Each structure stands twice: as structure tokens, then as C-alpha cells.
Amino acid sequence: METAHLVDTVEKLSRGMGRRPKVMVTKIGLDGHDRGSRLVAGFLRDAGMEVIYTAPWQEISHVVNQALEEDVDAIGVSSLATDHLLVPKLMTALRDADMADVVVVVGGIVPDEDVVMLKEAGVSEVYHPGTSRHDIVTGLSGLIGETRMVDEEAQR
Asked: Contacts from 119-123 at CB under 8 Å and sequence distance 24+?
């Protein structure tokens, strides 16, 4: 039942956008723990989003270039160690590439004081371990819907 609801949520967003939302799930820096990012990529794909999944250990410049080439709506950065501390540099690189409209979310082990820093840098949301797939899919759908020109009537 929950999966059907999530699919419906993404279908409404897709109608409003005129295409499926496209999300890149990545890990920057030296953090190679990718179980969480693989699970989230699967949640998003199962709900109907187009997902570009990168291997761990990505350089910021590569993430920005691939996001530009793929014309993504959102980037999800996974962090188990302290690689979320690199995300402000990613945000700067996205702005420099004229991609400030790309939603960036971070998931993983992020201390509360770092959440404040990430949000100040422009991160839209931080998802901690244990966040439900419902909250991830609906939250990200809402964030994408807010930043992309969507047909409000199609979302109903």
C-alpha cells in the first residue's frame, strides 16, 4: 500500500513537470560506505523517479559535471563518515556552474551542529538514519516540486 502511495506521489510530480524527476545519488570524498545510498536509490527508483547512481569516492567536479550532463533535478549526498563537511564546496561549485536550482539533500550520520552549517550552505534537507522511505520520497518530491515549474493542476 505504501509503495502505491509513493508511486502516486511521484506520478503527480511527473505530470506537473512533464517528465519523471531525475535524481543523482552520490558519495563525495573518501567515504566508501554505500549501503544506505544504494537503499535510497532503490526507494526513489521504485517510486518512479529516474535515478543516476554514482560509485563512491566522487570528486566534487565530477558530480557537478555529471549533474549538468544528466540535467538532474536533485542530488542526494550520502555520508557515513565526515564527508558531509565537503557539501558546502559542492554547493559553491553548483552555484558557479549556474545550477543553484538543483535541490541538494544529505543523508547519513550528520551531527546536529553540522545540519545547521549544511542548511546555511544551501542544503534543502538532511535525512538521518532511520528516516522512512515514505519521508524520503515524499520530502524529496515536495522539494523538487517547489523548485521546478510544475503545473499545480496536474498535481491534484
From this structure: 121/87, 121/88, 121/91, 122/91, 122/95, 123/87, 123/91
- Which pairs with CB-CB distance under 8 Å and at least 24 residues apart come from 30-38? 30/57, 30/81, 30/83, 31/56, 31/57, 31/78, 31/79, 31/80, 31/81, 31/82, 31/83, 32/56, 32/57, 33/80, 33/81, 34/78, 36/78, 36/80, 36/107, 36/108, 36/129, 37/76, 37/78, 37/107
**What CATH topology corresponds to 2-147?**
Rossmann fold (3.40.50)
Average pLDDT over the chain, rounded to whole?
92
The tens digit of pLDDT for each residue in 83-138 reads 899 999 999 999 999 999 999 999 999 999 999 999 999 999 999 999 999 999 99
Segment 62-77 mean pLDDT? 98
Residue 34: predicted pLDDT? 86
**CB burial of residue 4 (10 Å; 0-12, 13-18, 19+):** exposed
Give the three-state DSSP class for 118. helix
